[in-house]
Amino acid sequence: MIERPATPQETGLSGALHAGGASASGGYSGLSESEARELVAAICRDIGAAGCPRCRAEKVYRLGSGRMRCGACGYTFQELTGRFMGIGGLTCAKWLDLLALFAEETPVKEAAQALGVAYNTVYKAMDALRLAILAQAIDARQIRKALSPGRPGSWPPVFGIMENENWVFVDLVPDVDAADLTLFKLHFRLKTSRVGSVVYTGPMRGYLGLVCCGGPEWITQALRAKDENMPLDADGGFWAFLKTRLGRLQGVSAEKFPLYLKEMEFRWNHRDHDMQDELTRIALAFRPLDEC
User: How many angstroms separate the CA atoms of 103 and 115, rounded?
Assistant: First the structure.
């Protein structure tokens, strides 16, 4: 039996991890389900996300069955209900192990084998982590709308990439359509290049480049040509970081590309942080009420 995790006021998240028997650098292996639940509760308190997933009231109590009930609205729930970590049906212990694997960019197949669970379960859980990353973005609502069934506007969406010293910003550019890239190239000599079905451009609209992925069918003859000396291709930059990972994935669907793009933005901007800690914080956040 482990000791009760220290309070967040005493130690913060890293302290809660160590007090719960977890290693911030070595993963959460070896935790029983009860220990994992205790750790999850400590982290939720630390990030200010303890309480009811329905009404967000803080006063909740545990039932004899192990589930919890809200003292305000009477809603009965479990530890991961309404959180990004609640997607996929994994236990708390399996989720904590998965977070360590995702932080290390372990492929889905290898992660499924390591966890001893189905491929589709891990795929869905990793998708949930990318949705959690997206939820941190300023333009999250607009991107979710662009990806939703019956989405308004043109497809596929276009993003702009801006670098500022050690930071990168990847923004949805709603007033530029994918078809515009061909027009800009033909009539304004906009430089373009591509990686498979991912097309990227030279500087435009104050961005270092625009990027779009919509499948091979939307790439026009003009966009098939690859121009040289693209600013995004500068050595050591974010785009090189992203292209390496796109190669490992052996292609990304147009529907999933925006999620991978925001994931890579997050990884780049937190590359000097403990990725596992950062991911744990956002994975345990409540999902937006309109998504639950």
Answer: 15
Model confidence pLDDT, tens digit, residues 184-242? 999 999 999 998 889 999 999 999 999 999 877 778 889 998 999 999 988 778 998 99
Tokens 């796109």 — which residue? 246
Side chain identity at 60, as an amino acid letter? V
Which amino acid is residue 137, in one-letter code?
A
Q: How far apart (Å, rounded) are the C-alpha atoms in residues 257 and 213?
A: 7
pLDDT, tens digit, 9 for 90 and up, residues 35-73: 998 899 899 988 888 889 999 998 999 898 888 999 999
Average pLDDT over residues 255-261: 92
Contact 47, 285 (CB under 8 A): yes
Query: What H or E segment, with its residue span, contains residue 163?
Result: strand 158-164
The answer to whether residues 153 and 146 touch, using CB atoms and an 8 Å cutoff, is: yes
Pure H helices in the chain: 8-19, 33-46, 92-103, 108-115, 119-135, 140-147, 178-188, 221-224, 238-249, 257-269, 275-283
> Is the Cβ–Cβ distance between 115 and 122 less than 8 Å?
yes
* CA 281, 284, 289, 292 torsion-angle sign: positive
3-state class (DSSP) for residue 277: helix
DSSP string, 52-104: -TTT--S-EEE-TTS-EEETTT--EE-TTTTBGGGTT---HHHHHHHHHHHHT
Q: Torsions phi, psi of 60, nearest 5?
A: -135, 160
